[in-house]
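2024-03-11 09:14:02 INFO worker-7 job=invfold-0412 stage=load source=structure_tokens
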């Protein structure tokens, strides 16, 4: 976890709401003769809006546990909280559906799926079947073919490790050219068809109908993560948690918060691929 923050564009937020200018169209160059007026061209811009959302963790431990622990419980809890925050960020960025579970954030795969539903088009390639075993190398080649040139530099495949092992590696080995030493020692870099493979546990790991199992592209061009406030941790021996006083129970309460937003602003249209494209399993 923590993949989405590493790969997308992180935008510092100086206030609760931030609007960032985004280029939507460029200037045009014209040939011009001596003393002739130059034809004017105008670039076009819109704005990406980020609205900070608070993510929080609240937990408690007994003072006995805190005192008897070989490693400080505060250190352990800080690690656990950071892990929980990173997990939620990845879930929001990759599979967020816009519900309260994801703070109203819609992730990359739902944005792509909304383009043409279960059909191929825009930035979606429809697989031959709904099982991992039915995916073909040609489908991944077609995904590369529709990815725009401007998204090439930072492009990578994103999928669950199960898909990396059972689909991408399977197709690579089946294509031939693998030495016996590679098969025996397992020396395989996470690369596929010339692009890095980044595995994330938030992507699908089991067979299912109409699910985007892999995406290819540059997340920096597709999504912003607004960073308003990173993790802050507070400890209290007198707070109430769940209606119970931790002071009465000789406990410590730990509260952590962070504030962020994710805006997946560009996945193309129903007819034109954007900076990220996906491969979706068949409906049956």
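2024-03-11 09:14:09 INFO worker-7 stage=emit residues=284
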């Amino acid at each position: 976890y923590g993949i989405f923050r590493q790969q997308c564009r992180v935008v510092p937020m100086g206030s609760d709401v931030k609007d960032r200018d985004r280029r939507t169209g460029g200037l045009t160059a014209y040939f011009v003769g001596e003393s002739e007026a130059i034809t004017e061209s105008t670039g076009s811009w819109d704005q990406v809006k980020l609205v900070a959302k608070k993510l929080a963790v609240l937990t408690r431990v007994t003072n006995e546990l805190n005192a008897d622990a070989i490693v400080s419980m505060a250190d352990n809890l800080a690690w656990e909280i950071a892990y929980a925050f990173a997990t939620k960020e990845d879930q929001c960025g990759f599979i967020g559906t816009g519900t309260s579970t994801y703070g109203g954030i819609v992730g990359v795969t739902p944005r792509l799926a909304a383009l043409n539903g279960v059909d191929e088009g825009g930035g979606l390639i429809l697989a031959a079947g709904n099982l991992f075993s039915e995916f073909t190398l040609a489908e991944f080649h077609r995904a590369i073919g529709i990815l725009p040139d401007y998204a090439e530099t930072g492009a990578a495949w994103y999928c669950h490790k199960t898909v990396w092992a059972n689909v991408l590696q399977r197709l690579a080995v089946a294509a031939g050219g693998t030495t016996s030493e590679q098969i025996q020692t397992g020396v395989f870099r996470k690369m596929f068809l010339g692009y890095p493979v980044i595995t994330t546990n938030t992507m699908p790991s089991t067979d299912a109908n109409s699910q985007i199992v892999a995406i290819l592209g540059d997340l920096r061009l597709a999504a912003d993560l607004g960073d308003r406030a990173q993790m802050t941790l507070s400890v209290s021996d007198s707070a109430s948690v769940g209606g119970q006083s931790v002071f009465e129970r000789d406990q410590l309460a730990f509260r952590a918060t962070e504030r962020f937003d994710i805006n997946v602003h560009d996945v193309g249209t129903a007819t034109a691929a954007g900076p990220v494209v996906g491969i979706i399993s068949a409906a049956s």
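2024-03-11 09:14:09 INFO worker-7 stage=report msg="Residues 3 and 247 are 39 Å apart (CA to CA)."
2024-03-11 09:14:10 INFO worker-7 job finished
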